[in-house]
Design goal:
Elements (H helix, E strand, L loop, with lengths): L2 E4 L5 H12 L3 E6 L13 E5 L5 H11 L4 E4 L14 H29 L3 E5 L12 H21 L5 E7 L7 H5 L5 H4 L5 H12 L7 H13 L6 E4 L1 H9 L1
Parallel strand pairs: 1-2, 1-4, 2-3, 4-5, 5-6, 6-7
Helix pairs in contact: 1-8, 2-3, 3-4
Length: about 250
């Protein structure tokens, strides 16, 4: 029986992906910064482990607690929506610490075991923002584009050892708390300076009225496909809107 370690499973894509892999008969190491009861089904094949991907000590402790894993899904992320001019650099660094450096740190921590065993898969969950031109996502998109480039190069480095790296690109999901979290750091005036107010209002209205969108199930199923893909494919858009963007690109 195989084991997957998934970061950021307290809600949204991570939680649904943990449920999905469990339903397929896998052992699941579900990590989150603040473990809480009742988030995931009670099962001897699900273990909830505390993990802060920005802390080297936390990563070491989590992997020691997890034991051997076959797949790493780097899902933990910090959203950010706002005008770049109004985004404090402290916020920029916070986004990159989780979205980019956290992904790299987790990946680096599991690679020795994957390489020595001659098998393993790393799936990095990015975003459909990498597929199109979207305003108000400058910081978030930069952090995810960095992971896309990282994954593409990593896949080539790992191929000789039988280890695979993939990226999954979810579209817009309106049933998660992404929007609220994205604007939770800093006041609205900071995130959207007054000269940008009218522009921002229109962009957000267009965004929330789109006809295609992504569900958590779409992402879970796409991660599953990415894990099992042996064709050499690198990128997997998840959700109808993400697929449309990928096709247009």
């Amino acid at each position: 029986m195989k084991t997957v370690l998934i970061t950021g499973t307290s809600s949204g894509y991570g939680r649904e992906t943990a449920r999905y892999f469990h339903e397929q008969g896998w052992n699941v190491i579900a990590t989150m910064r603040t473990p809480r009861a009742g988030i995931l089904p009670e099962s001897d094949r699900i273990r909830v482990v505390r993990l802060d991907v920005t802390s080297p000590e936390s990563i070491t402790e989590a992997l020691e607690a997890a034991g051997p894993v076959d797949v790493l899904v780097n899902n933990a992320g910090v959203p950010s929506i706002g005008v770049f001019e109004g985004t404090p650099m402290a916020r920029v660094r916070e986004v990159f610490e989780t979205n980019t450096f956290g992904v790299m740190a987790m990946t680096q921590a599991v690679l020795p075991a994957f390489r020595e065993r001659g098998s393993g898969v790393v799936v990095n969950v990015t975003s459909s923002v990498v597929l199109g031109h979207m305003p108000l996502t400058a910081v978030y998109k930069a952090s995810k584009m960095a992971v896309e480039g990282f994954t593409a190069s990593l896949a080539l480095e790992l191929e000789p050892f039988g280890v695979r790296a993939k990226s999954v690109e979810p579209g817009a999901c309106f049933t998660t708390n992404f929007g609220n979290r994205a604007t939770s750091e800093g006041s609205p005036d900071e995130l959207v300076p007054q000269p940008y107010a009218a522009f921002t209002k229109k962009v957000l209205a267009d965004f929330t009225s789109q006809d295609l969108y992504t569900t958590e199930q779409d992402v879970a199923e796409t991660v599953w496909r990415a894990v099992h893909d042996t064709t050499g494919r690198l990128r997997f858009p998840a959700g109808a809107d993400a697929v449309r963007l990928a096709e247009a690109k």
